[in-house]
Design goal:
Chains A, B: It comes from Pontibacter populi. Chains A, B: InterPro entries: Ald_DH/histidinol_DH (IPR016161), Ald_DH_C (IPR016163), Ald_DH_N (IPR016162), Aldehyde_DH_dom (IPR015590), Aldehyde_DH_Superfamily (IPR050740), ALDH_KGSADH (IPR044151). Chains A, B: This is Aldehyde dehydrogenase (NADP(+)). Chains A, B: Keywords: Oxidoreductase. Chains A, B: It holds the Pfam family Aldedh. The structure is a homodimer. By secondary structure, the first copy, chain A, is an alpha/beta fold. The first copy, chain A, has two domains: 239 residues, Aldehyde Dehydrogenase, Chain A, domain 1 (3-Layer(aba) Sandwich), CATH 3.40.605; 177 residues, 3-Layer(aba) Sandwich (Aldehyde Dehydrogenase, Chain A, domain 2), CATH 3.40.309.10. The first copy, chain A, has 15 helices and 19 strands. Chain A has a seven-stranded mixed β-sheet, sandwiched between helices. In chain A, helix 10 packs parallel to helix 11. Chain A is globular, with a radius of gyration of 24 Å. Chains A and B meet through strand 1, strand 2, helix 8, helix 15 and strand 16 of A and strand 1, strand 2, helix 8, helix 15 and strand 16 of B. Strand 16 of chain A pairs parallel with strand 17 of chain B, so a sheet runs across the interface.
Chain lengths: 486, 486
């Protein structure tokens, strides 16, 4: 469908869709999940052919996608996400009476969603951005990812079926194919009220710039990846040298390093266990069986970026394998904090099964490195209880550098839940005030409006006196599920 | 103080200030209010000399400013604004365990605040932007407004005293003087993490553009005013012709029309009561005693804008008075919806005691006008109970055009409370997802961070198991004030 026709239909459909009840939107989201499941093996096989991802992984990803749709259905049905806030009238207040004011979040309008190549299901057609936008009451124009067009069409069909079954206009969700120019036109179109994107820095930043230069700028939620630094403290490394190497390596290698949260930087102490740690890491990465990457472009970028990095001053290749047109072969390099601090190129993300070990000599170097980090999706800090003060000092720095700070485990594996933040300061995303995974993602596509002195009949249900759906509301500054006595 | 030194100190002070407890920040805000009150008549007299605003108005504005500081103190002390959200670990979950995740809002860092000429107290040095930024845990670099430098210095002194009394670094709040270039440098400086502004479209848009072009873009909350259209429905106009004219006129004239929410557009039916309505309006505006405007620049812009508008095709001057270098003399003009729809110039804000009456012939014209509106801080809709369907249709359109939609009363008078939205779609503001007045303003200066698998000792107090301050938290999807059993 031509992009401008899609946006016209999305605008018309918004006038219908924005007035749907939360039950209607919850039903739509659940029906989409059912329709996706009904696609059966064809979806998984198509996605596997197009993305080179194994069926087991895609089975998991389909589960995640459908769970995500159902979680947003639950959130919408529960309804408190609209932040209903009511200040009742104080007609006798001196010197002036206070009018009745009732505030809630309302949807922004048509949202343009760009899918990600590395998650053909969970971050694509019916992925987190589409699910949260539909949940909020926005209509969606989805720009097909060229890496998996057939998968995208299948999922689009499932969404279309669901819209039809729920008696909603087809303009609520539309699917647009095309190249970079089509994407640009979608972002620039006056009907577009927000944009969501998951992918490279280059792609995300170009979209952001276009959107900010519009006559009417619109919010852009671009998740552009990060290097996800992992810090290992001295006592911790001593305690468990080989096991930590294996744990870090597994996260670096997961999905051929094609996750936004793969740890691409390991800060480790320069101590008497550095050598055994490096040997264990080297062994893990050397012996890993390479898998096909998503497509040749991704593989090409991986080897190009790697080649460039290994030529930087003070960077020593530890594991380096022959390049391939499609297979992602693991790599490992080493440098030290002094070199790393001097060279911003060593902060660039290399998307693939690679990590750069950066050794530090002392606490000052460690804190200097933490302070020099650019914005990250995640930071990870592994220390012992005996290193609490150092952990505290690092935490004070790292919490301002990332969206998620881990103290155990690995950053890969992004939970779809209430407390998740999959976001972080620029350049991890273009809007650090949001998350692209988890329940709070719904708030990206809404804004507050206050109804003042409104007759009950003209108020949205959420703001009427009788709290018929029992949502949590802030009434005169207090959270409550009560109705207002008339 | 040089701007770069101020930002350096603000960055250093942030490391201390971000770790203050909510009680410490509440104490600071209350102490600032006390110190402002302690300035006594000197503050009011200085502000009146610099702004031409009468003492009675400034007395009210001082009360508003101090109440605002105390309201944010209450919000911070209560503490639930941080949106603490906890998903507890599920170690036995299949196929993978769920880690413990705890999310809350944390402050962004140093915020640059630009004051407004029309509110030398409530939207300036210790105004809403500064109060909400300080409440959130951000440090502030305030750019003095050239319209009231002495007032600004006095308030700055009050804030400095409060910081000293509270044992906080002077870098928590700093005051910078200078021209447009200094403002630009403040916005462009890498240490700046967010910007707040109240003023003209030209000024706000320039700041927005600069901030988006930074290597690391930062949020800009610019409130740039609006025309605040007021719609009167046919039956309503019949019912109460003269009284509605008086009510509208009073809002147009309030403070010489120098409020962001003065109604600059009145949509009225072309009916047999249009003439008496226009006559009543004409009488009110003609007989109004003109007052000095804020400064000669504002007065100059008012008469220039007015002169330009009155030359537009199809615009008929009803009240037009001689221009003055400082006095704001009321004006009134009339056009119809067809003319208005054809000419975007008729949507431009004229800051001063003026309104443009736009007559509509029927419901279609009325809805077409509503649909053609650009983003507004407020829209007002006056109708009778008998006009409920038309009100509903207009509400469906207008709620997407503004931050606040009134069904009675006038848009001037912005309540500082929980349910207020003082914001709205571009060009009313640069970020429709926020408000610059009321409790939710604090969230502008914060972003979420998730702590995963963190030891209790490394968690912020708000996320620890024992909910020592009794804040509302979302635990496993349920709002509660309970602690977590260990």
């Amino acid at each position: 469908m031509p992009y401008n026709e899609a946006l016209k239909k999305a605008t018309q459909a918004f006038e219908v869709y924005k007035k749907t009840t939360s039950s209607q939107r919850a039903l739509l989201l659940r029906t989409i999940a059912e329709e996706i499941e009904a696609l059966g093996d064809e979806l998984l096989e198509t996605a596997s052919r197009e993305s080179n991802l194994p069926l087991a992984r895609l089975t998991g990803e389909r589960g995640r996608t459908c769970n995500q749709l159902r979680l947003f259905a639950d959130v919408v049905e529960e309804g408190s996400w609209v932040e209903a806030t009511i200040d009742t009238a104080l007609p006798g207040r001196q010197p002036l009476p206070r009018p009745d004011m009732r505030r809630m979040l309302v949807p922004l309008g048509p949202v343009v969603v760009f899918g990600a190549s590395n998650f053909p299901l969970a971050f694509s057609t019916a992925g987190g951005d589409s699910a949260s936008a539909l949940a909020s009451g926005c209509t969606v124009v989805y720009k097909e990812h060229p890496g998996h067009p057939k998968t995208s069409q299948l999922v689009y069909k499932a969404i279309s079926n669901a819209l039809q079954k729920c008696g909603l206009p087809e303009g609520v969700f539309q699917h647009v194919s095309g190249g970079v120019e089509v994407g640009q036109e979608l972002v620039k179109h006056p009907a577009t009220k927000a944009v969501a994107f998951t992918g490279s820095y280059k792609g995300g930043k170009a979209i952001f710039d276009l959107a900010m230069q519009r006559e009417v700028p619109v919010p852009v939620y671009a998740e552009m990846g990060s290097t996800n630094p992992l810090f290992i403290l001295p006592e911790k490394l001593k305690e468990d040298t080989a096991q930590l190497a294996r744990q870090a390596a597994a996260s670096v290698l997961l999905g051929s390093g094609q996750f936004c949260t793969c740890p691409g930087l390991l800060f480790v102490p320069d101590s008497d266990v550095t050598t055994p740690f490096m040997e264990a890491l080297e062994e893990e990465l050397s012996k890993a069986t390479p898998a096909k990457m998503l497509h040749e472009g991704i593989a090409g970028n991986y080897y190009t970026g790697l080649g460039k990095l290994l030529k930087e001053q003070g960077v020593q290749a530890i594991v380096q394998q022959e390049t391939d047109v499609l297979e992602g072969r693991a790599a490992l390099a080493r440098t030290d904090v002094q070199q790393w601090l001097q060279n911003p190129a060593l902060q660039e993300e290399i998307f693939g099964p690679f990590t750069l070990v950066v050794t530090y000599k002392n606490t000052d170097e460690l804190l200097a490195a933490a302070n020099a980090l650019q914005g990250q999706l995640t930071c990870t800090l592994w220390g012992t209880n005996q290193e609490e003060q150092l952990q505290q000092n690092l935490t004070d720095v790292l919490r301002d550098k990332c969206g998620r700070l881990l103290f155990a485990g690995v950053p890969t594996g992004v939970e779809v839940s209430h407390a998740m933040t999959h976001g972080g300061p620029f350049p991890a995303t273009t809007d650090s005030r949001s998350t692209s995974v988890g329940v709070y993602a719904i708030k990206r596509f809404a804004r507050p409006v206050t109804f003042q002195s409104a007759p009950q009949a003209l108020l949205p249900q959420e703001l009427q006196n009788g709290n018929s759906t029992g949502i949590w509301r802030t009434i005169n500054g207090k959270l409550t599920q009560s109705s207002i006595n008339e």
